[in-house]
Model the fold of this input.
Amino acid sequence: MDERLRIVIAKPGLDGHDRGAKFVARALRDAGHEVIYTGLRRTPEEIVRTVIDEDADFLGLSSLSGAHNFLIPKIIDLLISSGCGDVIVFAGGIIPEIDRPRLFSKGVRAIFGPGTSSTNMNDFILLTVERRESNSPVGCGEETDWRWN
Amino acid sequence: MDIIKLKNGDRRSLSKTLTMIEKGDLKSADIKEFFPAINEAEVWAITGSPGVGKSCISEHIIDNWLQENKKIAVLAVDPSSPLSGGALLGDRIRISNSDNSDNLFYRSLATRGQSGAIPSNISDMIKLFSALDYEKILIETVGAGQAEVRVASVSKFIILVEAPDSGDILQAEKAGLMELADIIVVNKSDLERANEKAEQLKLALQLSENESPNVFLISAKEKLGFKDLFLEMKELEKNKKENKSKSKISLSFAWESLLWNYKGIDLILQKLESEKITIKEAINEIMEEFKID
Amino acid sequence: MTGLNDSGNSEVRKTLGGIEVPIIATKKWSEDMGSTADENLTAGETPYTRGIHEKMYRTRTWTMRQYAGFSSAEETNKRFRMLMELGQNGLSVAFDLPTQLGLDSDDPMSEGEVGKVGVAIDSVEDMKKLFDEIPLDLVSTSMTINSPAIVLLAMYIVCAEEKNIETRGLRGTIQNDILKEYIARGTHIFPPSPSIRLITDIFEYCTMNLPNWNTISVSGYHIREAGSTAVQEVAYTLSNALAYIDAAISKGLDIDEFAPQISFFFNCHNDFFEEVSKFRASRKLWYDLVNERYSPKNKKSCLLRFHTQVAGVSLTAQQPQNNISRVTIQALASVCGGTQSLHTNSFDEAIGLPTEKSATIALRTQQIIAEESGVANVADPLGGSYLVEGLTSKIYDLAREEILKIDKLGGSMKAIEAGYQQREIHQAAFRFQKEVESGIRKIIGVNYGKNEEENDEYSIQSINSKIREHQIKKIKDLKSNRNEKICQSILREINKISSTDENIFPIVLEAVRARCTLGEIINSMKEEFGTYRPPSGF
Done:
């Protein structure tokens, strides 16, 4: 892959735990990507605007506050209505198993819980880029059941 | 590139077009062609060592412009990692107004391994923003070394930020930047050494032959001292005088981009590498091409 | 400091925090580490390395204080009463994030967050429901609240007033530690100076009116959770505490008036001996620092009293029941380290909110240690161990060095503004994660001892989805039943006093009594104070 990917790592919601988000941002940088980290407590509107202005290929959402069921679908809806349905969305943090099917069906393509390795995440990124290049649906607004995990 | 959408203010089209410029897929000539009437935005650069508080100061400047209902583009530049080629672009972290107004477009840029602290195609981005009626452009860059002087070539005004705890001002590499600055700001005026630092700076500036920039003491954290800074910025926008060192830099940077964009450059480099020609012969060859005697 | 534990190499072994340990600890090793342990030192004797009370847990066992709170005040009240029936002797309130950030439940930013990680408190009416039928004169209550601590404490006081309880006798703790919020926890609202001013206003008010209240709980817990080493945890926490003392003294308070009300809050991770040593080193270091710098007359001013919570970050989402073992080891270390109170985590916290069942196991774990293990019979049971004495000295020295480094940067606040602690913690966290990924550091169920198939289903605590509407309705009712004119004039007064040096506590109490909401009170301060985002450490 000779093109650098642009990845926004965002913290929606009110929680201030960014150990995971910062680790992910740094690990993705080390894998050769350009990572834009938003900092804490961004609203869905702010996050979508960041994705647009930064022309991001990926959006990673980290939530540990339990507000993921509300925030993540809202962000994806906003992305789609702003014409960013091609952006690939993944999530991390504390997201209970029971909530995951709904988020996947909403267009989240991977959920990385505690204990995920950065290799695992890089593999996800490579694979989704391959899908995108072969015109298989993978963006958050594209029709597919495909997901990483 | 969807020109109609772009002209209608579609953010995503603008963002995609910036990406094209960044990748080199869209050149100055194209921009000139698509946007013939070009207004000139006021281009400000804010620079200083890491940790002096550039982001916080930028935030207040942006706020001030937003209140005046200006259309603003921010280009926040951070270095790419020489090891991985990746970059961590974190200038948004401390800004709380970056995403709230339609009048503000905020883009983070990595240097992508180009010489100098700013990507060479930043001037094309500036042209695009100008064409789209952006009135203010703020370039935020880490001014840690000699190469950062290049920020002068693309911006009309430079604000150099210093902090009392940011090391010795008289470092050789900073001297160049100081000569170019239009305004010098000493942040963290709450720290004891802030006054001392400002005095030190003023003294150093008196020794320079150029007209000295004014030095302002501010506190970005407590939002103190900004009124005077904003007044000075307005004043400068009205009566900007060119200064010689800055013209020199602009010229040499423009010259350099001309050189590296010259289509025969690869061939000349190859010939140099295999020692088929000497540096002197290479220069002659290029000068001939550019018709310089 | 790198913390490698290369299992292929029998020569070098290190603690979790990267301190090299010997194959067997001898007196010489211990002395090489700097130990000058006094063989005759007992607990309750200065410098308190061995504990702050002469008879330690024989006089009174530690307070079992389980952090709890979710959904509405009514729901949390039920959980509190359940825990008290199970034998818990202190309450600890977890507030939801909007409350921690001074937002009312009806604020747009609160959407999706109300009642999630703790209980939603919008006004004193909620506070009264939270403590319904709980005897405030008999229990001690700890509240994990920082930026808006002044308002929540005022609500607790007014709640007691309206229950006709003598407020001078109230016992409890507010966390009230803004510096670690900037460093690690992230629920900050105001810039540093006004935040510190609120804290010292609380010190001043409580010194006079709430003598049994711990006005601050200087917390290393979250610093450790963010990825620091044990040494960094001690250093940054004590350094923050020194900053609070300096601020209070420059406000004109006397060290002996407020310092006895300062308490601490530490993490307890998996490395058993390092953790025990950390607690011992912290006690001695705090005693020395306060004596050296402030020469207090009251012995209690340099006493390090602390609450411990076991390490949430050590819990794995994989094979969650293994976490019960981790919690047990950690809890045992905190008791051997002489903690004054303890929270044990529920095993399912890496998956979601604890259920009644998992919360019960967590409390029972403490009771097993207290009643069955016998460790509580002897004060400082590991004192005199060459290993523990050696590690105690080493941690003491390293933490002191780090505190001096922060002093040189201009103290804790200036260092935070420069991003120093944040950067150091981020580096340590990154290093640790890389060690896990490379397999150098093994975590059972994550990169070692993985089960082929994980099909165990765990139920987690669910939150009523109507909670926000419920809170919004309560706010509406409250606002329609109060004297609006008085409320507005008090809010304006808060804004006015914010710009002066006057103690703001009395007017906040008035606002709470008049039924102003948390969000209204904080907003009227925000207009004057502004907001702040500290450097992230990148």
About this structure: Chain A has one domain: 6-133. Residues 118-133 of chain A form the longest helix (16 residues).
